[in-house]
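dumping the sequnces here before i forget
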Amino acid sequence: MAARVLVGVKRVIDYAVKIRVKPDNTGVVTDGVKHSMNPFCEIAVEEAVRLKEKKLVKEVVAVSCGPQQVQETIRTALAMGADRGIHVEVSGKDYDTLGPLQVSKILAALAKKEEASLVILGKQGTFASEVTIDGDKIKVIREIDGGLETIKINMPAVVTADLRLNTPRYATLPNIMKAKKKKIASVKPGELGVDLTSRLEVLRVEEPAQRQAGVKVETVEDLVGKLKEAGRI
Amino acid sequence: MSALIKARKAVGLAVGCGARSLTQLAELPELHQMMRQTCRDYADRELAPIAAQLDKSHTFPAKQVCELGAMGVMAVEVPESLGGAGMDYLAYSLAIEELSRGCASTGVIASVNNSLYLGPVLKFGSEEQKQQWIPPFTTGEKVGCFALSEPGNGSDAGAASTVARQDGGEWVLNGTKAWITNCWDASASVVFATTDKSLKHKGISAFLVPMPHPGLSLGKKEDKLGIRASSTANIILEDCRVPLGNLLGERGMGFKIAMQTLDSGRIGIASQALGIAQAALDCAADYAHKRTAFGAPIAKMQAIQFKLADMAVALESARLLTWKASMLRDAKKPFSKEAAMAKLAASEAATFCSHQAIQVLGGMGYVTDMPAERHYRDARITEIYEGTSEIQRLVIANQVLKEYQQ
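..and the predicted 3d for all of it:
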């Protein structure tokens, strides 16, 4: 039985909130704005907990990188059924410039340190719509443009979760209480041997252009005419 | 000088004992915040989108009640050993408020099950009764109800005319109960009947009756102004027989059981009213930002701002009263006065907020396209059931006068 699953959970602005750009165009407004776990991360946690319930894995560890507040997100994962959490402390300027490169280095270092057989993340990447563990291999069904593809991969492996993988559970009240007793360990990126310097520099953040009203046309000729007018063809 | 120091020490001691309570009034503990957020997420995603439809079709939200059962929300205070969530009354109050903000009917269904059915069984039931009558009602698959009111008496609970007589190894119940929430969807009821009319309110006893059951029939579903997804009807008992072991507590204890149960139930209804008031305020404030008149969003107008401010104050004051009542109950201190104050304040806040919300929305507040009209209809009952506002005032006055007993 696979020992350990690592699940990455990211604290993001709640998907229902209207995002506003800061007046100085250096980023988006995050102060006082509602944050929650990235919905795709919820799906990843749900999958990990289901694997544990099916006794295919022994332990689910939730990981998040960021300042003190990400502990709330880790606690939510614990309330959904993860066994323990790891908070990688990143704050201030380092947090502002924290990008996929640094996070993946951190997760790789943690996966090695924790001897994780499987890392499940919210999608972008190879996304799974079904995951089962078969002996020491993982069988993944993933959605590709042409249809569904079934692949078998060796562990340790990284799998990312798509929308259709599962419907995340609501934490039950008893589990919320139990989550309080579960441990969240704090770790500094330096301890994992990860260098946080960013290779990217944010020059400016702007709101997307306002959507213009559309124009209705009667015939295909009109459409072609309008497109030519707008210089599109 | 020393008197001041003594006084400060005394206050310090009091604050020390209640420090947890005072900080909780300022900010909820992490556990409660998480719980509140979970209930809010559920209400936003699963209840709010269907509330209008449930109201229109008078449909009991069976699927959602089961999901809430799985979350532990249908039996918040019941210990885990009996299938509940094992949390405190403050957590329960938060849960009901959040549910009611999404759908007031679902809020009352959960509240009645928690406070009016599971409450008395938990408090007054024997070990055997608890084992039999609690676990199936924690999962959401079964809900209970509370049969106290009758066509002839609501506020005058002591004048019960439903009778129970002993016949061999059974109790035989006869009479009619009125306005029973959940009854068309319930699998059990706590029924109050008099076992000795001459003793007046001291002759009333409480009985556990399964539903359906021979001798128990239901009247037609009331066509209500609001909370239409919950069923309300008469329960008619005609030689309804239950085993002697179905007596809850002792003979003659019924009135005491009813009053103590309602004390706690009041906090549940106060919470429901808070949820409705919050939903009304949310609706009005959101609309005020978007609706323009005289060249600007109406949120810029003082008349609208004053309304929103009054709504917010009424709501927040009622909420703090409700939290205080819950915390006193959790600390096993007397809480009747505070519970009555909470219910009174919250229900009047709900009707006030929903009334003003319609006013802010103008014509849009009067049509079903917006939820304001449903909040207005849902709010109204909170001033009536589980103790009318008039009864609450009597309870409060009683307690206040006791404090000044000559």
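Chain B has a mean pLDDT of 93.
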